[in-house]
């Protein structure tokens, strides 16, 4: 036996229902009461099926649009300027007030032509019904019954707004009922003009456009308030099936549908037959001159001046604010990108990559038939034994041969013949084939990277991620390309070594710009029995050489000996602090000194930015803050940036010394190529070239900007070609960019120079020691006070008669060390005393893997 519910609500409901039933069925008016009850329950059921209490709270969202977000960069005037848009569908909101009345109306209704076209085709009685057009429903019912199919719809503009804003596109009675219910609510809350405005801004009109504003700009390249009658009719013709009736995809179908729109205008008394024919005929020029790809979309029309910047910031913002808000929130995103810097970065790098692709001339693998030729006959047997899938190509050998021959030989000939014949169709096909080809003549593209950062603020002002942003080339290489820095790592190593010596002075092991090292071949026996013999780029050696000169000439053997003398364990903390390798560590072996481990251009640039900031870490930032459509800041990245402490990794004195040494690299060493474009300020930097010329670098800075340039292939084992060094490839690009990007900016000095405490000493150029009586070649060098030399040079013997000149003193702290011009000296007798050699000492690193 089924028990009654025991809950309080259930008991109360049952008692109430019994009482109500008794009242309905008692008395003299049972039939009337029963009818009322049935009607009331029917209305309640309809409401429960079609409506909800939540619907009343949704209505305020009807007038809220999904608006694209805009990315801003800084121009030369210090003003923010749009550089990109983020959206999945293009929408340009239009106020009904913008669609002003016609000055010379063709009908009694003087509303704007766009409004008249949409009212005539979609809902001519819009301003007279209350959301549901009962006459229209009856008429559509009869028409559809007679036609035997759905030929005419009965949805009013208000119902369409309800569907567009709140419902799906499924065809069902329940959905139509909810559509009608929501339409009634919309009519109660909003005036007619507002509902029409929402409709004109929400209706999809094809090719990724939402609303008449975006559609007008896409189809006609003009604002919606400026369209003609014919263009307004085209927009109104796209409401039902935008793809089928698109003038770009199906011009004939479009013209037929536009004729129907004009017929509706005539039927509804908005236009005379003569005027309709005249306006329709005026469209002939538009359709005749229409020459656009059917695949064209509003997405390709979006503002996107710097694609690599746009994509990098997009990925970061999706993680922090979400994709929905980014694409539809109408956000204003204020970035650190300097428009002039970005333009000059692309002008400097992209043409250089294209030229280098041709010069390096590394062809993609093309002998794809080799396997089929050599092993094709035996493959069927192997496949039967091991159950392998069928071996086949997507296209035949004949097709591949023709495609290759056409691309390399025949296409140019066809193009020349077409110029003579003047056939537009064939010319368009050839042009499309040229532009759609990703790599010309099967050449592997040389890729590259350029990233620029303000050393004091961390602002990323320019970013180029490769040879061109395409569907097959969207890798943002400054952040995603892990490559060996080669000799570009030496300044970081030397700065850390000099900083350690300043904190732990030891006359036998101090590393200073004037420390003498042996530039000679090295050979190490590794634990596995192999030998490691690091060599200089030129395979030539200079004997004993000062560290400043060794950096200028990029001596590999000296870099290894610096690490050997100080000890890698003593430098690890500083190196980790400068590089900030989250989740990765620096390998514990001496090949580190030659940049043998992988870094991204961003990581290497950030490390150089620390040197340019006086040894203090830099926290790069690309977006400052984000505002919503009302101007309220919803995300302030500046606060996140300020909350991260900038740590003093190495001393300002060590940063000063390595900066002065890198000045010599630019003036006299491997980085002279940066001066090719007339940079009007002092620059400091270092080249880098990895084994077999796989990577070419230049990383450097001025007080205003830190920039890195990298050349290489995505496949890290491919060479750029013999002699393709950082000095030849990357340095000129760096110099061109810096010269033109900073051309309009005032020359400044490093703000931290006033706090630097270094001493200047006159030393012997041969030994790096304090000059003795027989020293004939002197220069002035900077030292951290604790590491200044105290030993007098006696490496020359007494066989030189020297007339010394007074050394010159530079007026600027960070300047190229001037070479001394000495008077002519006369050699009297050969020196009997051999040069004193420094012994090579391992400093507690016996367990390091060489």
UniProtKB/TrEMBL annotation:
Metabolic or biological pathway, per its Swiss-Prot or TrEMBL entry: Glycan biosynthesis; Cell wall biogenesis; peptidoglycan biosynthesis
Gene3D superfamilies: Biosynthetic peptidoglycan transglycosylase-like, DD-peptidase/beta-lactamase superfamily
Matching InterPro entries: Beta-lactam/transpept-like (IPR012338), Glyco_trans_51 (IPR001264), Glycosyltr_51/Transpeptidase (IPR050396), Lysozyme-like_dom_sf (IPR023346), PBP_transglycosylase (IPR036950), PCN-bd_Tpept (IPR001460)
Gene Ontology CC annotation, any one: outer membrane-bounded periplasmic space
Span list, region Disordered: 805-850
Record flagged with keyword DNA-binding: no
Source domain of life: Bacteria
Span of domain Glycosyl transferase family: 112-265
Location of the Penicillin-binding protein transpeptidase domain: 448-738
Compartments it resides in: Membrane
Single GO MF descriptor: penicillin binding
Composition-biased stretches (Polar residues): 805-814
Catalytic activity line of the entry: [GlcNAc-(1->4)-Mur2Ac(oyl-L-Ala-gamma-D-Glu-L-Lys-D-Ala-D-Ala)](n)-di-trans,octa-cis-undecaprenyl diphosphate + beta-D-GlcNAc-(1->4)-Mur2Ac(oyl-L-Ala-gamma-D-Glu-L-Lys-D-Ala-D-Ala)-di-trans,octa-cis-undecaprenyl diphosphate = [GlcNAc-(1->4)-Mur2Ac(oyl-L-Ala-gamma-D-Glu-L-Lys-D-Ala-D-Ala)](n+1)-di-trans,octa-cis-undecaprenyl diphosphate + di-trans,octa-cis-undecaprenyl diphosphate + H(+)
Annotated keywords: Carboxypeptidase, Cell shape, Cell wall biogenesis/degradation, Glycosyltransferase, Hydrolase, Membrane, Multifunctional enzyme, Peptidoglycan synthesis, Protease, Transferase, Transmembrane, Transmembrane helix
Similarity field: In the N-terminal section; belongs to the glycosyltransferase 51 family. In the C-terminal section; belongs to the transpeptidase family.
Name of the protein: peptidoglycan glycosyltransferase
């Amino acid at each position: 036996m089924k028990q009654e519910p025991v809950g309080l609500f259930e008991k109360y409901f049952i008692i109430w229902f019994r009482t109500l039933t008794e009242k309905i069925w008692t008395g003299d008016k049972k039939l009337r009461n029963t009818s009322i009850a049935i009607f009331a329950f029917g209305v309640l059921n309809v409401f429960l099926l079609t409506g909800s209490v939540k619907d009343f709270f949704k209505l305020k969202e009807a007038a809220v649009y999904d608006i694209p977000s805009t990315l801003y960069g800084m121009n030369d005037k210090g003003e923010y300027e749009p550089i990109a848009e983020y959206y999945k569908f293009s929408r340009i909101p239009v106020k009904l007030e913008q669609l002003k009345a016609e000055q010379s109306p063709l009908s009694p209704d003087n509303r704007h032509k766009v409004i008249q076209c949409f009212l005539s085709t979609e809902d001519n009685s819009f301003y007279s019904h209350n959301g549901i057009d009962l006459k229209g429903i009856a008429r559509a019912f009869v028409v559809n019954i007679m036609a035997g199919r759905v030929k005419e719809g009965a949805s009013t503009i208000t119902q369409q707004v309800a569907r567009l804003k709140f419902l799906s596109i499924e065809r069902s009675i329940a959905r139509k009922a909810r559509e009608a219910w929501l339409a009634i609510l919309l009519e109660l809350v909003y005036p007619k003009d507002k509902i029409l405005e929402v409709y004109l801004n929400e209706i999809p009109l094809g090719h990724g456009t939402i609303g008449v504003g975006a559609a007008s700009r896409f189809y006609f390249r003009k604002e919606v308030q400026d369209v003609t009658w014919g263009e307004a009719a085209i927009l109104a013709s796209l409401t039902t099936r935008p793809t089928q009736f698109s003038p770009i995809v199906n011009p004939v179908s479009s013209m037929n549908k536009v004729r129907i729109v004009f017929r509706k205008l005539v039927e509804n008394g908005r236009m005379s037959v003569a005027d309709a024919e005249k306006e329709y005929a005026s469209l002939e020029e538009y359709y005749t001159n229409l020459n656009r790809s059917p695949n064209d979309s509003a997405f390709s029309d979006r503002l996107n001046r710097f694609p690599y910047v746009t994509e990098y910031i997009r990925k970061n913002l999706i993680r922090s604010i979400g994709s929905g808000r980014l694409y539809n929130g109408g956000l204003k995103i204020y970035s650190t990108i300097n428009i002039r810097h970005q333009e000059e970065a692309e002008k400097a790098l992209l043409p250089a990559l294209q030229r280098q692709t041709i010069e390096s001339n590394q062809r993609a693998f093309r002998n794809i038939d080799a396997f089929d030729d050599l092993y094709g006959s035996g493959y069927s047997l192997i496949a039967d034994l091991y159950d392998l899938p069928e071996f086949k190509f997507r296209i035949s050998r004949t097709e591949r041969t023709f495609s290759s021959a056409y691309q390399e030989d025949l296409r140019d000939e066809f193009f020349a013949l077409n110029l003579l014949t003047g056939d537009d169709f064939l010319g368009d096909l050839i042009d499309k084939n040229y532009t759609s080809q990703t790599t010309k003549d099967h050449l592997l593209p040389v890729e590259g990277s350029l990233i620029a950062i303000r050393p004091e603020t961390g602002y990323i002002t320019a970013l180029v991620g490769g040879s061109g942003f395409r569907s097959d080339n969207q890798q943002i290489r400054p952040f995603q390309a892990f490559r060996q820095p080669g000799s570009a790592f030496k300044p970081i190593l030397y700065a850390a070594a000099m900083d350690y010596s300043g904190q732990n002075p030891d006359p036998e092991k101090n590393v200073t710009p004037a420390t003498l090292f042996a530039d000679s071949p090295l050979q190490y026996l590794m634990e596995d029995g192999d030998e490691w013999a690091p060599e200089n780029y030129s395979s030539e050696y200079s004997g004993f050489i000062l560290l400043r000169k060794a950096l200028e000439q990029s001596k590999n053997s000296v870099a290894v000996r610096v690490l050997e003398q100080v000890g890698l364990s003593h430098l690890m903390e500083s190196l980790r602090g400068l590089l900030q390798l989250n989740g990765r560590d620096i390998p514990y072996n001496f090949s580190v000194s030659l940049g043998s481990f992988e870094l991204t251009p961003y990581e290497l640039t950030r490390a150089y930015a620390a040197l340019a900031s006086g040894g203090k870490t830099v926290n790069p930032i690309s977006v400052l803050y984000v505002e919503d459509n009302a101007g309220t800041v919803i995300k302030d990245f500046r606060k996140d940036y300020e909350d991260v402490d900038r740590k003093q990794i190495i001393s300002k004195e060590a940063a000063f010394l390595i900066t002065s040494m890198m000045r010599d690299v630019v003036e006299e060493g491997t980085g002279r190529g940066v001066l090719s474009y007339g940079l009007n300020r002092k620059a400091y930097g270092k080249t880098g070239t990895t084994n077999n010329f796989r990577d070419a670098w230049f990383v450097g800075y001025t007080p205003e900007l830190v920039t890195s340039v990298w050349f290489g292939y995505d496949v890290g084992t491919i060479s750029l070609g013999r002699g393709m060094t950082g000095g030849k490839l990357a340095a000129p690009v760096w110099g061109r960019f810096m010269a033109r990007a900073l051309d309009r900016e005032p020359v400044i000095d490093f703000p931290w120079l006033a706090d630097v405490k270094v001493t200047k000493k006159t030393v012997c150029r041969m030994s790096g020691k304090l000059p003795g009586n027989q020293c004939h070649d002197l220069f002035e060098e900077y030292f951290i006070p604790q590491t200044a030399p105290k030993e007098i040079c006696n490496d020359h013997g007494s066989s030189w008669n020297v007339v010394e000149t007074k050394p010159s003193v530079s007026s600027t702290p960070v300047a190229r060390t001037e070479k001394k011009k000495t008077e002519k000296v006369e050699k009297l007798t050969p020196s009997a005393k051999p040069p004193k050699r420094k012994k090579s000492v391992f400093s507690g690193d016996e367990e390091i893997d060489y």
